[in-house]
Amino acid sequence: MRIIMLGAPGAGKGTQAKKISEKFNIQYISTGDILRREIEQETELGLKAKSFVESGKLVTDELVIEIIKNFIQGDSAEKGFLMDGFPRNLVQAKKFTEMLEEIGMKLDHVINIAVDSSEITDRLSKRRTCRKCHRATSIAIGNNGGICPECGGELFKRKDDTEEVIMHRLEVYEKETRPLTEYYNESGILINIEGSGTEEEVTEKILKDL
Ligand code: AMP
Fold first, then answer.
1. Which ligand 1 atom sits closest to the C-alpha of 84?
2. Which of 35, 47, 65 is the best mutation target for the ligand 1 pocket, counting ligand atoms within 8 Å of the beta carbon and taking the most?
3. Which residues are catalytic?
């Protein structure tokens, strides 16, 4: 099964994507996680991406397409995959369709999680991320201790989860990423999910529609 997860920052894509990919035993891939790891390790790619990621701008299409190309040519993509954070604009989406066609693959589903923008701002300002397992958690559910409830790793606030950068990321989403729902709707593979409610409720809705 090959799936793309769409939705605004903070819609719960990452959390749901990890659960769904585990359930179907397919590879989870997050371009944001890959870029943050590269930045932390100060690699050449990380140095190129750093200022974009930290200010909430999209990194260049060439850079992410290269990451994705390496991934889909590798063995781990064979069983299927769930993409979180890619594609992020129409150029990336069209290129991805082409890349898949070249190797005789097609997407099965595109899941679009929609959440009200006021809820999104609130969620992002309370979001903390685990340094070790990269899962997101919320201080609203009592994780102020700074420890990941999943793996015990250290929680941190992403540099792009500050109010000013959040506003910019939401603008980028509206302008660049939202049009992808139309693109995939035309191919008849779009599933719209209402993303408010508990984590478990949203997972249930997705599983029901897959
Ligand atoms: P995310 O973790 O998906 O919210 O991504 C964090 C940041 O990584 C974004 O704000 C962008 O700077 C960068 N990024 C992640 N995925 C992409 C992509 N497909 N295209 C361009 N930039 C991306």
1. 3
2. 35
3. 13, 88, 127, 158, 169
Predicted confidence (pLDDT) per residue in 141-183, tens digit: 665 568 898 899 999 998 889 989 999 999 999 999 999 999 9
CB-based burial label for 176 (10 Å; 0-12, 13-18, 19+)? middle
pLDDT tens, 102-145? 999 999 999 999 999 888 888 888 989 999 998 888 887 665 56
Ligand 1 atom with least separation from CA of 33: 2
Q: State how far the alpha carbon of 58 is from the alpha carbons of 5, 9, 49, 178, in Å.
A: 17, 13, 9, 14
CA distances for 162 relative to 84, 120, 135, 168, 204, angstroms: 21, 13, 18, 10, 30
Residue type, 115: V
Expressed in angstroms and rounded, the spacing between residue 58 Cα and the centre of ligand 1 is 6
Q: Which homologous superfamily is 2-26+79-116+177-209 in?
A: P-loop containing nucleotide triphosphate hydrolases (3.40.50.300)
